[in-house]
Design a protein that fits this description.
- The structure is a single chain.
- By secondary structure, the protein is of the alpha/beta class.
- The protein folds into three domains: 359 residues, no CATH class; 34 residues, no CATH class; 195 residues, IlvD/EDD C-terminal domain-like (Glucose Oxidase, domain 1).
- 35% of the residues lie in helices and 13% in strands.
- An eight-stranded mixed β-sheet has the order 9-10-14-13-12-11-15-16. It has a four-stranded parallel β-sheet with strand order 2-1-3-4, sandwiched between helices. A two-stranded antiparallel sheet has the order 5-6.
- Helix 6 links the parallel strand 3 and strand 4.
- Helix 3 packs across helix 10 and helix 9 packs across helix 12.
- The longest helix is centred in the first third of the chain and has 31 residues.
- The chain is globular, with a radius of gyration of 24 Å.
Length: 625
Amino acid sequence: MTLHPIVAAVTDRIRRRSAPARRAYLARLDQARVRGSRQDLSCANLAHAFATLDPADPAIPREVRWPHLAIVSSYNDVLSAHQPLERFPALIKQAAREAGAVARFAGGVPAMCDGVTQGQPGMELSLFSRDVIAMATAVALAHGVFDAVLCLGVCDKIVPGMLIGALHFGHLPTIFVPGGPMTSGLANAEKAKIRQLFAQGRIGRDALLEAECKAYHGPGTCTFYGTANSNQMLMETMGLHLPGAAFVPPNTALRDALTQAAARRAARITAQGEEYIPVGRVVDERAVVNGIVGMLATGGSTNHTLHLIAIAQAAGISIDWDDFGDLSAVVPLLARIYPNGPADINQFHAAGGAGFLIGELLDAGLLHGDVLTVAGEGLARYREEPCLDHGALAWRLAPWRSGDECVLRPAARPFSPDGGLKVLSGNLGRAVMKTSAVKPEYRVVEAPALVFDAGEALMAAFDRGELRRDFVAVVRYQGPRANGMPELHQLTPPLSALRGEGFNVALVTDGRLSGASGTVPAAIHVTPECLAGGPLAKVRDGDVILLDGERGVLEAKVPATEWAARRPEPVDLRDHQHGCGRELFAVFRAHATGAERGAITFTTGENVETTPASHAAPGDAPCAD
């Protein structure tokens, strides 16, 4: 199938834009490969590195010809998605021995859960944990003794952080090894209804807690299509999983077989073998575009409008929201998974899953098929799904027909002709809006602003009964420099309840929402953020705000002369600088780039957040720190 002209044009634009940085990145990759694993280590270095070899392992990984595999894991037994990873290192080590290699636990990375920290001070550490994870991955690999990497991680910041870290060791082959989703619990529609009833005060906390425990009830990732499961789709479409590994449940024979197969495959694709596949070559401009397309076609998390930018930059590739927006215009929405529909990820997988989806996108010319993946040349392998054949791992073609077109559809009959992500711009800056979860009749809101400097202030106003009217909630000073850019998902139930009562409501914020806004239109990640002089800080109560998710407009309907004369309203952020470890992240807040640059804290060069001249609203000068 011929590549879609818009996909081809966006890819070419990214390639040309990125050329100098990508050349420099690949030169560093080649230089690192030439040095070779372990060749530059002294005898003392080697003795330290291999002093604890298991007696079952050969002593010869000191020699370069024996693959030495690093295990980097986000295991902890507090969080459901990470607990299954406890068993993986033993499986990997055994499989590596059988393949003539040695696998060793190189390091752990922190893993926090946005579900646990939602609405709590810890949420202000969440986004920055991605960069901590990247650095922890780098520390694990910095000993210079490894030939390939197995990254064990699933959830929100873990996969992007690990990939960013691995890309700084881009000469090493890297395979991501997921844990899989938990079994289905309370239906998502029922869960959402109970949350709204609690927000309205019609049921108590005990009933809410009982429902939440029925929804989140066992090991594995949450079954809704948030950032965790979007990560897994990303790894499939970018060719960093073994084919079809994403959504196989934990603690099953098939999951264990896939984990062991990842170890065997990693041993085969090192520089010592005949099929060298370094991660820095896998993640190229085509793979990045494939990742964006996979996210759009499934209605994935808006967090990846940050994470993919940061991942790409780690590989010397520059992307921006216009790339997302242009691709969204031509990529059809093929899946309806909560919050974009009632189904969960297990129902998606049963209907044909990633294999069916990738096949449809390839046939429609919307994915680059001629890419390098950890499975070898070409994305066609990812049309397959894993299975057990008399106890042995095998692959077969995924179903050619969807098992449930209420959940997963062919490209010829999509749920929507576009990917449901809109880039908004106007005198309030730039933002993204996830339209795939919002009915068309709700995508345009023009109403007076109610300004809040914290999500808690909006919740308190709702509890006092002050919000039963049409309004646009402006929740400001929520950007990465202000307070770490927390997710504001706790605002969804009250705003959805107001929408259900017939009020015309919307949300505008420089914070995050993960795209899980349900029926409520939300302009999120507004950039420049308020603390960087962003115009959102100039909004006052009563200003009429236009959020137009059809035409891509985000505007304060204030006379131009008055708007130009206004100064941003300052706010006291001292309460967000202390407690729950927030003091330790002061350097992250001080150096974070803007949302459209990935909210990265360790980038080199100029970090001042600005609105590029090409994106500035008419009559507005770009805002800087």
